């Protein structure tokens, strides 16, 4: 202990005098484990253990007290929160008189097809009663590929079919050429509804069936007057084809050729003039005719748009 005191006094009295290494063995273990640079440096003093009653230890409780006071002030500024209501205090409304709790779904008796049909009919109307416009039985739904359909199995509707063109087309592949047929069919009911369809298949009959189904999916409504003619003239382009349509007086008939005549006849037009002005391609001319009919408007529709009565429209 005396040796340690002598070393400390020497380091304090003579800071420039280096401490002898022989005296380090007699120092406490806590001082010997410190880095040698701190003990042998001439510009630094020995690091002594700091007593517990120091200035920074005394200031710590003050800082903690200030932090607690700030937290209390923040709690006072916050709005009071409502106390949570325990689930045991909540009470459900009493059921009405005569209420009978329904049974679970797995405990109900099995429903018959008549019950299911009655439920659908009550929700969506009498369309599910088994009677349809097309004459099909909704209780016997059969998914049949259109290719496998014969003419007797096709939908029993009022639409007629007319073949405009059947071409043999070729697809060149790695192994050679694949031959198939493309059919253009016009479908209509002679009452203002007409559609143009295209179908391809290995056989002619299959191509025609596909084209007819495609035409039924692309039906449009043609505006007609009481004389079965157009309300006004119209011109339309499709690709390189251009078609001109003009109304005609009663008794004129359909004066047109090619695909334009087929489309007008299937739509129910009896008096009209049609002309193919550019390309003679049947498919483009048929679609141009459909496009021209969709550009026409009835007189009542124009009067409603302008906000005028029908009498004022002719003045």
TrEMBL record:
Region annotation Disordered: residue ranges?
53-89
According to the entry, every stretch annotated as the S5 DRBM domain falls at 159-222
Tagged with keyword NAD: no
The record's section on Pfam families has:
Ribosomal_S5, Ribosomal_S5_C
Locations of Acidic residues compositional bias? 59-77
What keyword terms does UniProt attach to this protein?
Ribonucleoprotein, Ribosomal protein, RNA-binding, rRNA-binding
**Record-linked InterPro entries:** Ribosomal_Su5_D2-typ_SF, Ribosomal_uS5, Ribosomal_uS5_bac-type, Ribosomal_uS5_C, Ribosomal_uS5_N, Ribosomal_uS5_N_CS, Ribsml_uS5_D2-typ_fold_subgr
Q: Which GO terms describe its molecular function?
A: mRNA binding; rRNA binding; structural constituent of ribosome
What does UniProt give as GO cellular component?
cytoplasm; small ribosomal subunit
KW DNA repair (keyword) present: no
One GO biological process this protein is involved in is:
ribosome biogenesis
The annotated subunit structure for this chain is:
Part of the 30S ribosomal subunit. Contacts protein S4.
Regarding protein family, the annotation reads: Belongs to the universal ribosomal protein uS5 family.
Protein function: With S4 and S12 plays an important role in translational accuracy.
Q: What is this protein called?
A: Small ribosomal subunit protein uS5c
Organism for this UniProt entry: Eleusine coracana subsp. coracana
Source taxonomy: Eukaryota, Viridiplantae, Streptophyta, Embryophyta, Tracheophyta
């Amino acid at each position: 202990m005396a040796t340690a005191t002598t070393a400390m006094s020497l380091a304090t009295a003579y800071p420039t005098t280096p401490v002898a290494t022989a005296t380090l063995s007699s120092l406490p273990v806590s001082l010997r484990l410190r880095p040698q640079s701190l003990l042998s440096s001439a510009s630094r003093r020995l690091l002594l253990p700091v007593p517990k009653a120091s200035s920074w230890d005394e200031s710590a409780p003050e800082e903690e007290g200030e932090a607690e006071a700030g937290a209390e002030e923040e709690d006072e500024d916050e709005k009071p929160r409502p106390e949570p209501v325990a689930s045991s205090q909540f009470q459900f409304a009493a059921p009405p008189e005569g209420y009978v709790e329904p049974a679970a779904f797995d405990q109900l008796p099995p429903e018959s097809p008549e019950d299911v049909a009655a439920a659908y009919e009550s929700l969506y109307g009498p369309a599910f009663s088994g009677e349809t416009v097309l004459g099909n039985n909704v209780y016997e739904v059969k998914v049949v590929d259109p290719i496998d359909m014969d003419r007797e199995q096709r939908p029993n509707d009022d639409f007629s079919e007319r073949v405009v063109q059947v071409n043999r087309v070729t697809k060149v592949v790695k192994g050679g050429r694949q031959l198939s047929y493309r059919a253009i069919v016009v479908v209509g009911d002679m009452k203002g509804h007409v559609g143009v369809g295209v179908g391809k298949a290995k056989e002619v009959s299959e191509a025609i069936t596909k084209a007819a189904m495609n035409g039924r999916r692309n039906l449009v409504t043609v505006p007609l007057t009481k004389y079965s003619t157009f309300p006004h003239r119209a011109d339309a382009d499709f690709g390189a084809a251009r078609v001109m349509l003009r109304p005609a007086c009663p008794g004129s008939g359909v004066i047109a050729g090619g695909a334009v005549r087929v489309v007008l006849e299937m739509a129910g037009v009896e008096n009209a003039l049609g002309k193919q002005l550019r390309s003679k391609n049947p498919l483009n001319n048929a679609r141009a005719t459909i496009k021209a009919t969709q550009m026409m408007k009835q007189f009542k529709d124009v009067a409603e748009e302008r906000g005028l009565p029908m009498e004022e429209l002719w003045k």
